[in-house]
Amino acid sequence: MKILYTCLTAFFIVVTVHFASAQTQTIYYNKGGIKLLSSEGAYFFEQTDYNASGGGTRTRFLKANNVKVSLYNYSSFEGEEDNNEILNGDYSLWYDSGKLSEKGSYENNKLHGKVSTWFENGQLSYEKFYFKGELKDTLKGYYEDGALRRIEVYKEGGMVDGKVFSKAGADLPYFPAFVLPEFPGGENAMIAYISKNLKYPEEALRYGISGLVLITFIVEKDGSINTLEVIKSVYDVLDNEAIRIIRSMPRWKPGLNEGNLVPVSFTLPVRFAFSD
């Protein structure tokens, strides 16, 4: 069973949409997250339903069987260039089997309220609480058989107490539940790598096109990068260059969940700008 643990960042949003009335848009993607011109060769399809007030929902499905894998609510699909869409309301994620894997809510692009995650067998795996994007109160984690695995207490976004237990209930030395993937050498090394290797497409230079592309991808258990997806598009050649630079990266230090190697979904912004 493959479980994906998502790294949430402060970045959200896709393409600015202009509309006068409610409408629906469907976009197809291959397994690597590349947007396709048609349904041919698609692995996912994403349906965005716009309402008359400027918001709506974005739902992703597996093309093979129409199984729903994610659903997000938005209060707005328009806004500033680097933060176009505003997540507001409930969201849900599902396993490829169709079973619920995560449920929570956003308030102005920040997690707010209870977030629950489940194992594929239906057993609760984590229950945690957020206030405007910061963890608060008590986080509880469970083993797949329902036994209590950990308790963590948070105040003002920081952990003030944490305990880890064996399946039999014995105390264990504390270790963090989640360790995020890391580019070799850390964030500064990643920025240097992108700066050195990014190539500004000639077509975008010719037409004076710039902007911020947001890419999500999965850092696998062996540190390799897989399943890239453009979640904020600027222009096709810029989107493709952002994907190329991320795909060319060396293997990352993989993420951990409860001490075990796990694939982790990561979001990374790639900015294209002209020098003064």
UniProtKB/TrEMBL annotation:
Topology of this chain in the membrane: Single-pass membrane protein
Compartments it resides in: Cell inner membrane
Database matches in InterPro entries: MORN_2, TonB-dependent_transducer, TonB/TolA_C, TonB_C
Annotated signal peptide: 1-22
Main location: membrane
Superkingdom of the organism of origin: Bacteria
SUPFAM superfamilies, per database record: Histone H3 K4-specific methyltransferase SET7/9 N-terminal domain (SSF82185), TolA/TonB C-terminal domain (SSF74653)
Keyword terms: Cell inner membrane, Cell membrane, Membrane, Protein transport, Signal, Transmembrane, Transmembrane helix, Transport
Matches recorded under Pfam families: MORN_2, TonB_C
Every TonB C-terminal domain range: 185-276
NCBIfam families: tonB_Cterm
Protein family (similarity comment): Belongs to the TonB family.
Protein name: TonB family protein
Protein source organism: Pontibacter populi
